[in-house]
């Protein structure tokens, strides 16, 4: 139960959120420029570069980026997401609440799995109930806390029974959950252990493509599914999608420049964006951020339990330099608030960011009875697989040194990092979340005692009560002030030090166009609708 | 009957070091490659020691990101705008420290086991098996595993490298020590004292010393490579600059292909150090045993 949201989050480095494209099914509103205007190549092959192999073909336990990207092309989500975190239809056309403890989804009719079996509400109900029962280690499990069961009341309508009123279940479960074929997954037993590795006659898909050939360490080949009503014309444009595995982003960039691949799925390192924007034949797309990067201070440690110490640390970080240098100005301050500006409806711009003021830090520490000669030491952990955090961690250390605090950096291999995070084996944690789309849900996970991503171990009754109230408030106008108040409590007490929302960039060859941009590295231009809509022009 | 011989041998071994050293040095000076290698090594060591005089410690961030080499930044700047020249100079400190410390531990431990093994034949069987076993292990994956589990720090890296470098030393030194132990003067020494420690210290260790010196140089150059390899994989000490860390950060920033100066200069430093060490040890070996190569 404990590892989900963080997992996806850590995977996806940071989210992204300002898409110019409409997210609804068809018609990309921002077709990519370039293109050369030649006629579209029919039955082209779209080659996408990734840096990791698929570890798990079961979308409920998926863990690496490649897992997510490839399973996403086969197992549809009920809801999609817009650049501002608002949910949009995908498999479900309508969703909402019948009453406080009953939610519903109305799904598209006429959907089919690639083996011909119709996709009905039964598959949806099965997927949700199976995850609730088996608790696989994916993001969805965490969203199902107040979910009791799902029932298919007709072929297109699913109703969700909740154990307590919770306004976040329907949108969050709809967005995070994949729908899997009941006739394939049910005979396999537990969805927490089912490998779904295609050994029993291949995969069954209700997305635009179906996986047909796997060469570990090399490539994953996916063939077009003819019936995919979510895209214009009801049929994906490219005949094949091939994910190719590259050792790292350097080789991916070389591959793209040489024309070996058409798209790099991984977000570009901030320092590389400018160079690639000026490269002929390559188009760079901005992926709006919808998450944040942050540091949490482990309040189980006696020193960090003191508000003055946490504030001193917050004043000892040069946030502007981090955003300017490490992120090449591709990040936006959140005002130290967990409700980022991209969530326009909820963001409160009266909450201001901590400024970089080492003298003030020293003052706070001296007043709290600490020496500022470097004798106060903290250990900061971060994942080595996250290059951006790895870079700014050194700036955090340098800033703290100016305030007379020693920060010892402990960059860890990702699995060790996750294990240490889980065990609370750190003073300061640095990391990020890909998608923090719903403030009430996310604050519940982040700041309630026992919350799965409560890495500061905060337990503040005032804050908890605000979050609990927001969670059962179904009217947004009433929910908003509660959440904003909670965000201010978090900021003022430094229960979390939210540093920025990063806008990501991805690159593709200019002869491909028609991508549909969605927020976060998880969706970006490799979301199912985007991949199915992309076309290649004949000549350049 | 053996006594005069033994005494003579001892006399030689007592007087030998200064005379042999002078002779070796005279021959060594005639090896241009060896002298050049020595000069390069001395330069690197001086650069490492004098780092504070040569460049400010690279910390924080700079104004121009990924600038190519210029008058202001001889080796260009990295993705945080830091001066790569300063990083290479300060990195020399860390790289040489790891090399020296790791090889010292490996040499002391390896030599000790080698001479003990050579002298006490019964222990030798055990030591040989352990050495063979350790030599057959896949070293890099193991180093990665240990470094990843323990967490990267300078101490971890030194210990990890030392732990996997000593068997090589033991094997080389042991073969030499074995032949020394069989020499008549060691038999004679056995008659004179019952203390194996004294014999090992006085006769066996001095006899294998030249080989140990060669091993020191070779082991440290290998240690630099291992340390750089680990750092490149992100398992270096993130709190200090090392050549491997410069490479690692260039790779992380995706700048390998676009900013050639980032991988070039630290690689060049590693290359120079390893090449110089190898040439130096060869030259020294030749100077020490002139009959062998001419």
Automatic annotation (TrEMBL), chain A:
Q: Which GO terms describe its cellular component?
A: ATP-binding cassette (ABC) transporter complex; cell envelope; periplasmic space
User: Which top-rank group of organisms is this from?
Assistant: Bacteria
Where does the signal peptide begin and end? 1-24
Q: Does the keyword Ubl conjugation apply?
A: no
Q: Which SUPFAM superfamilies does this UniProt record tie to the protein?
A: Periplasmic binding protein-like II (SSF53850)
CDD domains, from UniProt?
A: PBP2_NikA_DppA_OppA_like
State whether keyword Protease applies: no
Molecular function as annotated in GO: peptide transmembrane transporter activity
Ranges for domain Solute-binding protein family come to 89-448
What's in the keyword line of the UniProt record? Signal, Transport
A biological process term (GO) from this entry: peptide transport
Q: What is its subcellular localisation? A: Cell envelope
The record's PANTHER family line, in alphabetical order, gives: PERIPLASMIC BINDING COMPONENT OF ABC TRANSPORTER, PERIPLASMIC OLIGOPEPTIDE-BINDING PROTEIN-RELATED
- Hey, which family's this protein in? Belongs to the bacterial solute-binding protein 5 family.
> What name does the UniProt record give this protein?
Peptide/nickel transport system substrate-binding protein
- Which species expresses this protein natively? Actinophytocola algeriensis
């Amino acid at each position: 139960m404990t590892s989900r949201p963080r997992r996806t989050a850590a995977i996806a480095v940071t989210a992204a959120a300002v898409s110019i494209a409409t997210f609804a099914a068809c018609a990309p509103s921002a077709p990519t420029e370039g293109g050369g205007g030649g006629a579209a190549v029919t039955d082209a092959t779209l080659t996408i570069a990734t840096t990791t192999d698929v570890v798990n073909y079961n979308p409920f336990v998926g863990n690496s980026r490649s897992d997510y990207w490839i399973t996403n092309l086969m197992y549809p989500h009920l809801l999609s997401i817009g650049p501002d975190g608002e949910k949009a239809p995908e498999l479900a056309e309508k969703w909402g609440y019948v009453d406080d403890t009953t939610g519903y989804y109305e799904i598209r009719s006429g959907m089919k799995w690639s083996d011909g079996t119709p996709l009905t509400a039964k598959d949806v109900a099965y997927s949700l109930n199976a995850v609730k029962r088996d608790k696989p280690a994916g993001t969805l499990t965490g969203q199902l806390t107040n979910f009791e069961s799902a029932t298919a009341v007709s072929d297109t309508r699913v109703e969700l029974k909740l154990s307590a009123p919770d306004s976040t279940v329907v949108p969050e479960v709809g967005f995070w959950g994949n729908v899997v074929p009941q006739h394939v997954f049910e005979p396999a037993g537990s969805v927490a252990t089912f490998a779904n590795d295609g050994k029993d006659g291949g995969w069954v898909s209700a997305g635009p493509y179906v996986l047909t050939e796997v060469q570990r360490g090399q490539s994953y080949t996916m063939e077009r599914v003819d019936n995919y009503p979510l895209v214009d014309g009801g049929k994906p444009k490219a005949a094949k999608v091939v994910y190719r595995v590259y050792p790292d982003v350097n080789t991916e960039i070389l591959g793209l420049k040489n024309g070996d691949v058409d798209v790099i799925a991984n977000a570009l390192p901030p320092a590389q964006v400018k160079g690639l924007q000026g490269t002929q034949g390559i188009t760079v797309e901005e992926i709006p951020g919808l998450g944040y990067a942050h540091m949490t201070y482990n309040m189980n440690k006696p020193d960090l339990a003191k508000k003055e110490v946490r504030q001193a640390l917050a004043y000892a970080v040069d946030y502007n330099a981090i955003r300017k240098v490490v992120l090449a100005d591709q990040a936006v301050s959140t005002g130290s608030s967990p409700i980022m500006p991209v969530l326009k409806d909820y963001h409160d711009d009266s909450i201001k960011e901590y400024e970089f003021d080492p003298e003030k830090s020293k003052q706070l520490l001296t007043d709290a009875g600490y020496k500022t000669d470097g004798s106060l030491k903290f250990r900061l952990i971060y994942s080595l697989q996250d290059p951006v955090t790895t870079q700014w961690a050194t700036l955090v250390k340098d800033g703290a040194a100016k305030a007379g605090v020693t920060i010892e950096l402990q960059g860890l291999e990702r699995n060790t990092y996750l294990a240490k995070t889980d065990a609370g084996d750190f003073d300061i944690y640095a990391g990020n979340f890909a998608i923090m789309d719903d403030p009430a849900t996310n604050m519940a996970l982040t700041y309630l005692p026992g919350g799965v991503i409560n890495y500061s171990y905060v337990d503040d009754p005032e804050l908890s009560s605000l979050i609990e109230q927001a969670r059962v408030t179904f009217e947004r106008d009433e929910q908003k002030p509660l959440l904003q108040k909670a965000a201010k409590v978090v900021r003022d007490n430094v229960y979390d030090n939210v540093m920025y929302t990063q806008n990501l960039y991805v690159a593709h060859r200019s002869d491909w166009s028609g991508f549909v941009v969605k927020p976060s590295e998880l969706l970006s231009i490799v979301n199912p609708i985007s991949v199915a809509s992309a076309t290649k022009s004949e000549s350049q | 009957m053996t006594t005069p011989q033994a005494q003579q041998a001892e006399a030689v071994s007592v007087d030998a070091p200064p005379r042999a050293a002078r002779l070796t040095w005279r021959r060594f000076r005639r090896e241009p490659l060896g002298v050049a290698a020595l000069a390069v090594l001395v330069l690197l060591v001086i650069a490492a020691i004098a780092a504070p005089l040569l460049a400010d410690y690279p910390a924080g961030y700079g104004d121009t990101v990924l600038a190519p080499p210029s008058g202001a930044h001889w080796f260009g700047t990295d993705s945080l705008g830091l001066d790569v020249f300063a990083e290479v100079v300060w990195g020399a400190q860390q790289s040489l420290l790891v090399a020296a410390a790791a090889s010292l531990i490996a040499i002391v431990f390896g030599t000790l086991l080698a001479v003990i093994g050579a002298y006490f034949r019964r222990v030798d069987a055990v030591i040989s098996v352990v050495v063979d076993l350790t030599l057959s292990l896949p070293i890099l994956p193991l180093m990665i595993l240990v470094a990843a589990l323990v967490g990267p720090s300078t101490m971890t890296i030194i210990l990890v490298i030392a732990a996997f470098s000593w068997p090589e030393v033991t094997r080389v030194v042991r073969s030499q020590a074995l032949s020394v132990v069989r020499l008549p003067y060691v038999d004679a020494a056995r008659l004179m004292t019952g203390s194996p420690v004294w014999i090992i210290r006085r006769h066996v260790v001095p006899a294998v010393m030249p080989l140990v010196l060669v091993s020191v140089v070779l082991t440290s150059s290998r240690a630099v490579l291992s340390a750089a390899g680990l750092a490149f994989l992100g398992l270096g000490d993130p709190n200090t600059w090392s050549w491997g860390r410069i490479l690692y950060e260039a790779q992380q920033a995706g700048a390998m292909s676009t900013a050639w100066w980032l991988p070039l200069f630290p690689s060049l430093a590693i290359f120079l150090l390893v090449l110089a060490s190898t040439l130096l040890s060869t030259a020294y070996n030749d100077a020490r045993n002139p009959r062998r190569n001419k």
